[in-house]
Design a protein that fits this description.
9-stranded antiparallel beta sheet; single chain; alpha+beta
């Protein structure tokens, strides 16, 4: 895990999601042809799996760094976990954007949105909601909601969305997701699970040409890298990481 972002967390990953308006083809020949094309470029991705609502092609997770893609009725998703570089993480996503429109007959009008997600997992064995509260809300006006001496945080998962242009079609979302259940809080017995911090960049609306998807991806990745460096790391990730250390 050589990326600077990866050094700040337990796991770092870059995901992509292409959402479409009409149902994607579901015939065997079309899907297998697409997955074979992906595997020919990424030979490690040789595990073909069927889940309840999607078909997936994955590489082995044993090495800690792995790639995957998945196809649902109205979306194609992909991800690279613990990449050595951001450029390496982008290789699979770019290939999918090159192949999918032609293999799955996606037209410019059919494109609903394209997303690029930077994910940061921070493992801890504690009440994750309490950690997020202490890191982000203690000392603020919102702290008064719990300032009664006995209340315990059981669901603290802030989410913020912003527009990056006047047309509001380029959007960024900052999210914190906790895994601690109410029963764990009640028993005070916690499992080692990650607090996940997400930065999602989304471009909504159709395109003039499907070839423009590569340019849109490049723009979203650039926005994601800048916002992660300038905002997510100092304002979300670092305070949560410090709170985890303090709770140990």
């Amino acid at each position: 895990m050589a990326t600077s972002f990866g050094a700040l967390c337990t796991d770092f990953y870059v995901n992509q999601k292409l959402g479409v308006k009409m149902d994607l083809p579901d015939d065997r020949e079309t899907i297998l042809h697409l997955f074979d094309r992906i595997r020919s470029e990424f030979p490690a991705m040789k595990r073909f799996r069927r889940y309840s609502d999607e078909l997936a092609l994955e590489s082995s997770r044993q090495e800690g760094s792995y790639s995957w893609m998945a196809m649902r009725r109205n979306s194609v998703r992909s991800g690279h976990v613990n990449p050595d570089t951001l450029d390496q993480a982008s290789e699979l996503h770019r290939l999918i954007l090159q192949l999918v429109p032609y293999n799955l007959s996606i037209s410019p009008l059919d494109v609903e949105y394209l997303e690029v997600l930077f994910g940061f997992d921070l493992e801890t064995k504690a009440n994750q909601n309490e950690i997020v509260y202490d890191a982000l809300f203690a000392g603020t006006p919102l702290a008064g909601l719990l300032d009664d001496g006995f209340s315990q945080p059981i669901d603290i998962q802030p989410s913020f969305g912003i527009s990056l242009n006047e047309g509001c079609d380029v959007q960024a979302f900052f999210e914190v997701k906790t895994a601690t259940s109410k029963s764990q809080v009640k028993r005070r017995e916690y499992r080692t699970e990650p607090i996940s911090v997400f930065l999602t960049l989304r471009r909504v609306g159709g395109l003039d040409r499907v070839e423009d998807l590569l340019d849109v991806f490049a723009q979203l990745r650039q926005h994601a890298e800048r916002l992660a460096t300038e905002r997510l790391v100092p304002q979300l990730l670092t305070p949560i990481s410090r709170a985890i250390t303090s709770s140990a």
